[in-house]
Amino acid sequence: MKFQGLDPQIFLSILAAVALVAALLYLLKMRRRRVTVPFSPIWNRVVQSEEVNRWWDRLKRLLSFLFALLIMATVLTGIADPRPEDERQVGRDIVLLVDTSASMSSLDVSGGVDRLDIARQEAIKVLETMGPLDSVMLVTMDGQLRPLTPFVKESAILQQQLKDLKTTATPADIRQAMQFVRDAVSDRPNAEIYVFSDGVFTQSFAEAAEVLPKTVQFKHVTTGESGNNVAITAFNVRRYFANTLNYEIFIELKSYFKRDIEIELKLSSDGEVVEKKSMTLGPEETRRMFFPNEGFSGKKLEARVVVKTADARDVFPTDDRAYAILPSTRKMAIALVTEGNLFLEAPLVSNENISYSTVTPEAWEPSLAENMDIVIFDRFTPPELPEQGRFMLIDPKGESSPWAIKGEVEGPEVTKTNKRHPLMRWVTLQDANIQIASKLTKTRKDEVAAQAGPHPLIVSRREEGRTLVGVAFDIRNSELPLKITLPVLMLNAVDYFMDEGDSIVPTYKTGEAWTIPVSKKATKATITSPDGTAHDVPVYRGRAIFYGELTGFHSVKVDDDEEFLVAANLSDTVESAIQPPEALELADRALTFEASETEKVKRQDWWVYLVFGALALLLLEWVTYNRRWTV
Amino acid sequence: MSDENLFSDEFLKKLEILYIISRKIASGQMRAERRTKKIGSGIEFADHRNYVPGDDFRNLDWMIYARTRKLLLRLFEEEEDLYIYLLVDCSESMSLEGPSGLTKFQYAKMLAAALAYIGLSNLDRVAVVPFNAKLTGRLPPSRGRGQIHKIFKFLGPLESGGQTDIKEAFRTFVTQNKRRGIATVISDFYDPQGFQEGLNFLRYQKFEPIVMQVYDEAELNPALRGDLQLVDCETGAIRDVTVTAALLERYREAFFEYCDELEEFCVKRRLLYFRAPVQEPFDELVLRVFRAGGFLK
To answer: How far apart are CA A550 and CA A319, in angstroms?
Structure first.
């Protein structure tokens, strides 16, 4: 036995001093209360008859003294905090690192709901092994690292925290977790790290764990049994540039089964099934599919994959659904400001997705641009170009031209075209035979699509709130109207303008910081997750920034008026590969073990029994000596 | 209760009622015919005794002498007024006040006043003699109901104090009072030297003692517990005791034992003995005395 609270010498010294004081107190006579009686001889008679019991009284007093000594010795021993000789002197600093990533929601476990549930149970087992000197910290690990508690000795606090843990649809950031753990235990030589995880990480565990000191006890409690899963690893929908009434859907499926699996893919728009397709996926096959010319109504599109093979079970439901937002469908509105140019009107008239109108330069007002998707100025340069909108200027003139004009060039030869520029798709200008063109001055914002020597012939510019395309010559003074090039160029221009628009609504990936475009004047945004949780998020330069953790449709409300939806998917082929590894490797050590292997440290708080002993002795002393009442 | 209020009009009324009741109890007796048992020079023959030189020849029974040749003297009952001495204990122990608010001393004074009134009403001569270790005063014998106020005036200012010494006090009493009579001793009899010798003194000197032991129920059941130092109120003697329930029970037994000793002493000597707890109304006690006989002759 050893004393943890007091040094043995100090303990003995105090005990001797206390015993001495007790002895002195017993030697002192207690001052009795004086009471006047009318006739003491009667009392004398009674007390004299008691004299025969005096030896017993003396014995009781001696016993009381011995009891007092014993009580004080017991209490002092309790204060000295005695411990078994073999009990550990120094406590452990335990870090419970619980994986709450998406793969932990897999259902391939027995004895629990999902992998996280098993991890939770194993963590509680570790808590039960804690000794009085041990301290513990609880940290969760998914896309983000969350230390839920500092190092505490009260393990009961952690039990409720463990019960409240939930998985997120994000991959685990094991590298960040290891760095955190290293910092947390840097000044704790008796640290023990328990990782409760299925071992499914998007980063290399061995590399991540290299930051840990070699002396740290590191244990991995594994969970999960199977890797059977079919995932939707990519999903999105776009509206055609030219045909704004129809959609094209892209979907990527990945099977993690080791054999052929029959599946059924369902597409739903606003809850209504609009497409259903059965297929067979080969072993670990990745299949990409397009669904062209799909016509839907509604806003929300959901894809769901269901395994149909009778003896197969998809154990990871998080990646069985994918979500997308349908771009709005409508005809493009184009205004042509011209004195009259049938060559330009022809390609616009022929496109059924375009609603166009012509305006004479005299009738032009900047307010007309507000209701138009694109405004084409033909040989007319408005005195003041609106701040917002998409504008194509053909043969701009004068000082109001967005490009400064420094004279004219006759018979310019096209010397260079930018084939990668969207305007130049399927367009050739080699034999355009342009008679005369303006010398446009290129700025840093401009991207030249075609040029004649140093002079830009076709140029584009994207600037704050405005997109411009400039053509440096009058098309009538070229052979373009006689070629297929003109309608193609016009349609390319339309596509170029609309490409930056709403033909596709981005789908976000969980486990990443989303930058959601909102109004530039917006000051705040509130994002409501699919589970109903509302988050106030910061808005920076017209973008709301939010770390998304759940798949599904999120509602974004900006400044309490504008509200729209965004979709989020897991879309992570590595996180969907939920097959747990046999064992994690750290240097040359395998780390997987069962929590029950940990030696259970019993709490040896003997002082509690000593306190009860002292109370029992006190009671005994009262019964034998002090059992009386004073009035 | 203050001593000034002891003998109020209400008290007098009670005494009057007591007197009427006493008349009924002693019916058939004539006023002023209460006689002592003194043998002397009365008219009514009582007994014979042998002649001794110095006796009055006139009382020799010549008829007897003629028949038997023996000189016998005729004795007659001497008719004289009855003397009632009320010996009231005024020691310190009588002054301890119990929960009732009435001290034993006050009770004793009321009792003495009641008995005095009855005696005076019967035309007896009543004297009041307070005592502790000695006689602390004396109201000479007086006669007639009108003297009751004199007795009240004497009893009222009496104060208690000092130790009890019955033997010494009664020795002095006997010496000072040659006329024999009823000696009613009203006391708690808390005398460390004992009560026997004092009472015997009265008996031996031809007094007829009536013993009235006054006590308080609170003395019987003291509200004491724990480690105490008991101080005797008269002697100042100190005793350390640890009072427990068992000890209290034994104390009660000892108390009754003490009372029984006094009673036994009286009964064996044919003395009237009354136990008078202060909780008992004094008039009831007086009636008890009447019914026992002896006080009213």
So the answer is: 11
